[in-house]
Amino acid sequence: MSKRTSEAARARIAAQRETLRKQEQRKRVTMIVTIAVVVVIAVAFAVWSVRQGASEKVAGGLAPVTVQEDGTVVMAKSGVTAPVVDVFEDFQCPACKQFEETSGSTLKNLAAEGKAKVVYHPITIFGQEPTKGNSLRAASAARCVTDGQQWLAYHDKLYKNQPSETVTGFTADELIKWGKEAGVTAPDFDNCVREQRNVAAHQQFSEKTMSTQKLTGTPTIKLDGKDLDTSVAFVPNSLREAVESAGK
Amino acid sequence: MVQLASGTSVSERLQPAKPALSWVTTAARVVLAGVLIVAGALKIGAPALSVQAVRAYQLLPDSVAQVVGYGLPVLEIITGLLLLVGLFTRAAAVVGGVLMVAFVIGIASAWARGLRIDCGCFGGDGTLAAGQDPNYFWELLRDFGLLVCAAWIVVRPASRFSLDSALGFTGERETTDEDGSDEGEDDGA
């Protein structure tokens, strides 16, 4: 009698244990499957995201670059007048640097392929020091460059060496040094940079541009006069697609 | 009669109290998951902007900002998905809560340092348009509210409409403990 009870109890306990073991096993399997699925999703997202953010390489040469009278710079193959991509940028603005790093090469390629006329409009949006002064000195120095190709090389150099928004940077010595590195050959470049000869003209140009273009910030990228959303402008593929379809 | 009535009402009130709380957890899950998924989805398509938004806080070195800019949207979406389906709810809520703490610290420190930035929470590059003012207070309030959701889920992870409960994961810690003592007795016998 007591033997039978203990047997029954033992069987019950064994059954209970079995259920628990199964539950544990199910949990382990679910955990492994979940981790595997999470890893797969994460990798897929990461790969896609990296591809979204990947910049183009400047493949061939550049389209001809011309410095305009008003301080804007046009990059286009001869005869290409549309679609127009306007880039309103400030050398001191971190987002402009990010745009340049991400999509700058796409614009160069599009221009070289004859698929767009790119117009750079360096302006100063900052009203407070040290950012305002930094921006003015850099933009003024860029105006000392008369050759288009050299201007573009200098433009890229300025972004590469952009100072933090909290310190005084873009000193005359630095600006001259980077000019040399970018191959600037303008005869009076050193003095032009040091004397900040173009600050007034640049400030005037900035104010006029901001009001006529109704700019609210930099970088502002316009495609045929219409603001391009940042989620397009900062994604090289989307930017290329938008410009190409505007050219059709 | 009165006693009886009040007695039953108390027991009735006690009985459904637990399910009601599990509904609260479900609601917290959906809210936290929804915000995380939307925030992640809006950022993941333009990682360069996301990196820029992280840089705008001026808290992390550049290389770390890159990693966070690319990784955060992925982490947000995955955490959100786990919370939404209710799988490993507690662990996912811990991650969600840690994220909210990080966001609160980031926004509060931007506010304290007098930075004028957009939180970049739902995409964008972290810059404010001219004439736009930062929304630090509301951003902090929102993230704090989401932190409360996460904390609630961590404390009471059992909830309705969750894979955890469908798979019998909820409350299984107690069962394991019981099992442990059972086993001990059994071995002794």
From TrEMBL, chain A:
Thioredoxin-like fold domain boundaries: 82-232
Keyword check for Cytoplasm: no
InterPro entries reported for this sequence: Thioredoxin-like_fold (IPR012336), Thioredoxin-like_sf (IPR036249)
A Pfam family hit: Thioredoxin_4
Keyword NADP among record annotations: no
Transmembrane spans: 29-48
PANTHER family: DISULFIDE BOND FORMATION PROTEIN D (PTHR13887:SF14), GLUTATHIONE S-TRANSFERASE KAPPA (PTHR13887)
Family assignment from sequence similarity: Belongs to the thioredoxin family. DsbA subfamily.
Protein name: Thioredoxin domain-containing protein
Organism: Microbispora maris
TrEMBL record, chain B:
Principal location listed in the UniProt entry: membrane
Transmembrane segments: 20-42, 63-85, 91-112
InterPro entries: Methylamine_util_MauE
Protein topology in the membrane: Multi-pass membrane protein
Keywords: Membrane, Transmembrane, Transmembrane helix
Protein location: Membrane
Annotated ranges, domain Methylamine utilisation protein MauE: 22-155
Coiled-coil zones: none
The protein's name: MauE/DoxX family redox-associated membrane protein
Origin organism lineage: Bacteria, Bacillati, Actinomycetota, Actinomycetes, Streptosporangiales
